[in-house]
Please model this.
Amino acid sequence: MAVEETRWGILYCPKAYNSKQREKIQQVLDDRKVQYDFVQSESTDSVERLVNMLIHNGYRTIIIAGGDSALNDAVNCLMRVEKQVRDQIALGVIPNGVMNDFARYWDFKEGNLEQTVDWLVKHRVRKIDLGCIRYTDKKGEGCHRYFLNCVNVGLIADVMNLRRQAHSLLGSRTLSFIVSIFLMIFHRMDYKMHLRINSDTLQRKIMTMCVGSGPGYGQTPSAVPYNGMLDVSVIYHPELLQLFAGLWLLLTGRFLNHRSVHPYRTREVCVEEAKHALVGVDGRLIGTPVGSYRINVEQEVINFLIPD
Model:
């Protein structure tokens, strides 16, 4: 049965160490007399099923109370429906995840719930871009995955996976980052890659590459999700002291100043070869694609609720 156009469908993704957040969100919504229906994910696997349910039940405003991975699931669900359906839906976020970098880019902060809801109530919509990685999996099947923030290839994909696992155990964003960086020294530090970016062809050992439609967890800080372009940071293997200097620049927002970082702006990246390099999409591993793959951008395909 169709729902009222003004009623929100809210997908709540709980965090184990913050069981009272749902009640806080509902209280703020009730105070502002928002009409809404709540559904709660039981696991990561249930997010796409519940988003699809909200879409097909006719909700015009879908709010994800979760992090980057849940948002990634939501946009991939939206990209599977017809354009005329997708164009009638506005996607919003209440940051409540392990990693909330895309929400943070728009100044939605986890500790400022009232301000976030006030902005969402104003329903200010902006069309945003999505990046897309198209690859072949180990079963030989052609796959694609859309992303809001970035694709990481190589070492940082491994670090992001470690960071997510550490955050689930430790709860602290900063502490989990420090622990994952420490564990990084036990992992492979460079990969033989063959890349084509604009008119450049790179064939050499590369530590990591970030392709960002958004700020890329600090690695593509100049990227914006509405200019039809991807920012790319290719990082060659630095000396040990340079590596720690690079981590400091990453934490202080000056990553592109490091001499081992080579930035590009493009519409497409072709990865002809990246043997054994893990690939992460919005902080979640998709494993290691088989053979070549490409990453491009689709312009203004999602209606996103932004601050006033």
Notes: The mean pLDDT is 86. The two ends are 32 Å apart (CA to CA).
